[in-house]
Amino acid sequence: MKNKLSKFTEFANELYPHELDYLLGIQKFEHPENLKILNLINYNVKNPHNTIPFDTFIDKRRYSYVKNWIETSLQARDVDLFYDWLIGYEKRVLTDIIQVNEEKELLKKAKEIDPTHYYFIRFYELMRYYRDYLIIRNRTDYYWTIESFLKTYQAPYQTAIDLNTRVNRATEDIVGQYFQSQTESRQWEEFLQQVFFNKEIDGYTRYRAAVRLTYMYYNYRDFSNLRSIYEELDRSFQAGIFYSRRILANYYANRAMMHSKLGEPELAEKYGSLSIQHENSDFIFYLLNLCGVLLKSKKNKEALQIMQKSIPQLRKTANYYYRIGFAAFYIRTLNANQMHAEAVDYAETFHSSYKKEINKNRWHLFYNTYFQALSLNENFGKILSLSRRYNLVEKEKQQIGEARYLPILLWYTTLADYMEGNISAKTLEQTIVWSCRMLVENNYRIRKIKDLLDELAPFAPEILHSIIQQTQLYKLKI
Questions:
Q1: Distance, CA of 324 to CA of 26 (rounded, Å)
Q2: CB of 292 within 8 A of CB of 333?
Q3: Angle at alpha carbon of residue 118, lines to 116 and 123, rounded to 5°
Q4: 176 burial level (CB within 10 Å; 0-12, 13-18, 19+)
């Protein structure tokens, strides 16, 4: 019994909170012990640091029944599993190998699926393939049922196609804004909100709109408006809408980022931990989110343990965006744990191996942490050498005032010039104060500016104190 319950406990602990919310909402258990087990799973999942062991006196068959019921109930709502089913049937129809029992299942699905289904668009297209399959074979027995489905939902299908075409155009502007700071994307906000909050259209289109709103709000650092999107997603997941473990993990990672930006560290850590509960193709990205949250909360040892434990996963990815992000956060984590020499060694080794990729992809993030490590090792000459060799300050100046950048490299380079005796204290002050005034004033920037000034303060405390006073006079509210 002990081994059985240990396996059940492992299964239960892997469930997500929103899965439990949905399961509790649909359960109709007649036996009280089934509900008792489900309630305890719910408590343990939502209180991972204060769990209660399962009752060994309950018949083990109850645990087996609940486990099977959970798996069956979640699989029935899983949009990723439905997509796998859909692709399989599409292949069967197009290659003329569909069987009689499978055709009956298609007819059954046609009676169940409407324009609000997550993959309504793809199912509608499958029905068109199937209609062609039937008509060429003079199969009038099933043909009229499928033809009726297609005619009934032709208008909603066309609407969904048109909406996705507009979402694609919005995507070009939104993603383009990330890479080209002069591009604007706010003009798509109202349209995307209308799509997302419209419960009469398919889930796939609605969720695409939510993802693009997330991207757009991050471009503008508008985290307050982002909250309403995630509150609606929260309600949807509780109701089993948009459900798959992949989508939930992505949702948890994005919520972690949002709460972190809004200065809500406990919620950020909670959702960040949930996002890395299972490995997927975006695991490294979710890991870095959590690492950033832990560092902000001064949980430096925890962050280091997580990063070091995840190095094997890093080796599996060929995505340089993730690799460079991991390297930057690992350097910062080593610095936070007072391992400054190790941080410089790691940074130099990585930079030597991936110079081209760094300067093409995430140069600002990487050199930020690299300069931090060099400063902590008092290697200011190396900062100046790197900054000039790769023209980093000029590249950064082109982005100052945009949502994504703060003048971190400018400040580190100017500080290095001061520490090397190349410029005066007055020039250091003027440079930093000038760049502060160039920034748009919002709460996120204010916090980041203060964090950066605090980061530099140990190297020239009197000067940095003077800078803080001056920036307050310029109403930057630091």
A1: 44
A2: no
A3: 90
A4: middle
For 378-431, write each residue's pLDDT tens digit. 999 999 999 999 999 999 887 755 545 688 999 999 999 999 999 999 999 988
Alpha carbon dihedral 52, 56, 59, 64, in 10-degree steps, equals: 60
Q: Where are the domains of the chain?
A: 2-77, 79-152, 389-478
Mean pLDDT by 10 residues, the chain (478 residues): 77 97 97 97 96 94 97 98 97 96 96 97 98 93 94 98 98 85 87 98 97 93 91 96 95 94 93 92 91 94 94 83 93 96 96 94 93 96 97 84 71 96 93 75 66 86 81 52
- Alpha-carbon distance of 65 to 84, in angstroms, equals 26
**88 φ/ψ angles, rounded to the nearest 5 degrees:** -60, -45
**Tokens encoding 86:** 């859909």
**Residue 262 to residue 239: CA distance in whole angstroms:** 26
Q: Which amino acid is at 450?
A: K
Spatial distance between the Cα atoms of 118 and 207, rounded to a whole number of angstroms = 9
Distance of CA 228 to the CA centre of its chain: 16
CA 385/CA 383 separation, integer angstroms: 5
Alpha-carbon distance of 419 to 436, in angstroms, equals 21
Dump pLDDT digits (tens) for 233-251.
999 999 999 999 999 999 9
The owner of tokens 């130099």 is 348
Output the pTM of the full model: 0.86
* Structure-token match 């799509």, residue found: 195
